[in-house]
């Protein structure tokens, strides 16, 4: 696969389509099974509160993976992501209800680089708080 977005068609400031991702406790249990990360802060409310958290929180890598979907959906090719990194700034708190939490992600092209690559800066928010800082991806476009 190759990116469906052409390098010549984007400029610094080009905004990617924003997306909102739901997160439920069931999703966290599924992610724990797939990742092997069974830390009880991600599924046991009593334990999470005993260690000072407000409630169960989403896995950081789960949050990171949801955020990059804005980029991979935009390019049409997950293999177009050359580099990706974030800082975890706040946890995504996932209540035990029918709605769970949401992660709102937006992004824009911050820099056009060499070799048909661009740097995309992402903003990931949950419950009005920025949950990822310095969230940046280098992406190779067509």
Structural class: alpha+beta
Beta-strand proportion: 35-45%
What is the number of helical segments per DSSP (H or I, 4+ residues)? Answer: 3
Q: Tell me the radius of gyration.
A: 16 Å
Mean of the pLDDT scores? Answer: 97
Report the uncertain regions. Answer: none
Residue share in helix: 10-25%
Biggest beta sheet summary: 5 strands, antiparallel
Strand segment count:
5
Lateral arrangement of strands in the main beta sheet: 1-3-4-5-2
Q: How do the SSEs run, as a string of H and E?
A: EHHHEEEE
What is the end-to-end distance?
A: 10 Å
Shape: elongated
Give structural notes.
About 25% of the residues lie in helices and about 35% in strands. By secondary structure, it is of the alpha+beta class. The mean pLDDT is about 95. The protein has helices at about 25-35, 45-50, 60-75, and strands spanning about 15-25, 80-90, 100-110, 115-125, 130-140. It has a 5-stranded antiparallel beta sheet with strand order 1-3-4-5-2. The chain is elongated, with a radius of gyration of 16 Å.
List keywords for this structure.
142 residues; alpha+beta; 5-stranded antiparallel β-sheet
């Amino acid at each position: 696969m190759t990116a469906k977005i052409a390098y010549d068609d984007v400029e610094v400031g080009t905004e990617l389509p924003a997306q909102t991702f739901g997160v439920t406790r069931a999703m966290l249990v599924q992610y724990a099974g797939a990742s092997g990360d069974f830390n009880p802060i991600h599924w046991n409310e009593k334990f999470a509160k005993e260690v000072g958290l407000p409630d169960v929180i989403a896995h950081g890598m789960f949050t990171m993976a949801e955020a990059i979907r804005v980029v991979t959906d935009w390019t049409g090719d997950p293999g177009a992501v050359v580099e990706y990194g974030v800082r975890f700034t706040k946890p995504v708190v996932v209540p035990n209800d029918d709605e769970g939490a949401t992660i709102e992600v937006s992004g824009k092209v911050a820099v056009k680089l060499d070799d048909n690559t661009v740097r995309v800066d992402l903003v990931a928010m949950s419950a009005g708080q920025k949950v990822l800082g310095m969230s940046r991806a280098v992406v190779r476009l067509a």
